[in-house]
């Protein structure tokens, strides 16, 4: 069984997907880490994440150790991940990896195009979102609650626009996805709503 959990940054999809996987006894994959690790490898090589050749080489050279790095979060990593994710060759390099993982284990996968591209035949599809202001508040708190909160909001909105407008695998809900808006929900309430959807689909 594959459960696809898509949505924009800081909507709570990662927390929700991990909890669903644990509850259902399924493997969990944060597909965003693949792109973050790819972007970080490009930065390490002093190349531009928007350079298609450099980004593809980084994607094809990924190792499990790359996914365990401690520097895959933050504004620089966010920008690099979004830039490499817009490259068709990068998405192609990572697509088989994601599909093999899901088909081998059964899994809950979270990302931006799981239900539309990676597993369009997923048994359950969720699209988790929240208002930009609430997502910016969460991301700002993740970063310690210091610094310019408006800058966090601006960066998040720019990332949303880039991910939704890219020519390859844009971020959007699958037609048969269930929308879960977490703006007014805490983690427990979001999990309860998602689990109810999963159980209804499985019945």
UniProtKB/TrEMBL annotation:
Q: What class of enzyme is it?
A: transferase
Q: Which domain of life is it from?
A: Bacteria
What are the entry keywords?
ATP-binding, Cytoplasm, Kinase, Nucleotide-binding, Transferase
Give every Cytidylate kinase domain span: 3-196
Q: Which reaction does it catalyse?
A: CMP + ATP = CDP + ADP; dCMP + ATP = dCDP + ADP
User: Which InterPro entries does this UniProt record tie to the protein?
Assistant: Cytidylate_kin, Cytidylate_kinase_dom, P-loop_NTPase
Q: What is its EC number?
A: 2.7.4.25
Ligand binding (ATP): 7-15
Predominant subcellular localization, coarse grouping: cytoplasm
- GO molecular-function terms, A-Z: kinase activity
Intracellular or extracellular location(s): Cytoplasm
What is an example of a Pfam family matching this protein? Cytidylate_kin
Matching entries from NCBIfam families are given as:
cmk
Family to which the UniProt record says this protein belongs: Belongs to the cytidylate kinase family. Type 1 subfamily.
Q: Which HAMAP family match?
A: Cytidyl_kinase_type1
Name it.
Cytidylate kinase
What organism is this sequence from? Roseomonas haemaphysalidis
Source taxonomy? Bacteria, Pseudomonadati, Pseudomonadota, Alphaproteobacteria, Acetobacterales
């Amino acid at each position: 069984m594959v459960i696809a959990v898509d949505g924009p940054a800081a909507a709570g999809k990662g927390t929700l997907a991990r909890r669903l996987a644990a509850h259902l006894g399924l493997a969990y994959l944060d597909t965003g880490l693949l792109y973050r690790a790819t972007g970080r490898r490009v930065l390490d090589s002093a190349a531009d994440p928007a350079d298609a050749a450099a980004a593809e080489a980084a994607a094809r050279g990924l190792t499990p150790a790359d996914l365990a790095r401690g520097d895959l979060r933050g504004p620089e990593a966010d920008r690099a991940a979004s830039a490499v994710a817009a490259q068709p060759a990068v998405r192609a390099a990572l697509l088989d990896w994601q599909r093999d993982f899901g088909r081998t284990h059964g899994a809950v996968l979270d990302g931006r195009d799981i239900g539309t591209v990676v597993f369009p035949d997923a048994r359950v599809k969720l699209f988790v979102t929240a208002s930009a202001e609430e997502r910016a508040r969460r991301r700002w708190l993740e970063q310690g609650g210091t610094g310019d909160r408006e800058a966090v909001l601006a960066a998040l909105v720019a990332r949303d626009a880039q991910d939704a407008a890219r020519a390859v695998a844009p971020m959007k809900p699958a037609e048969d996805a269930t929308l879960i808006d977490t703006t007014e929900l805490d983690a427990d309430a979001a999990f309860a709503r998602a689990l109810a959807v999963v159980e209804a689909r499985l019945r």
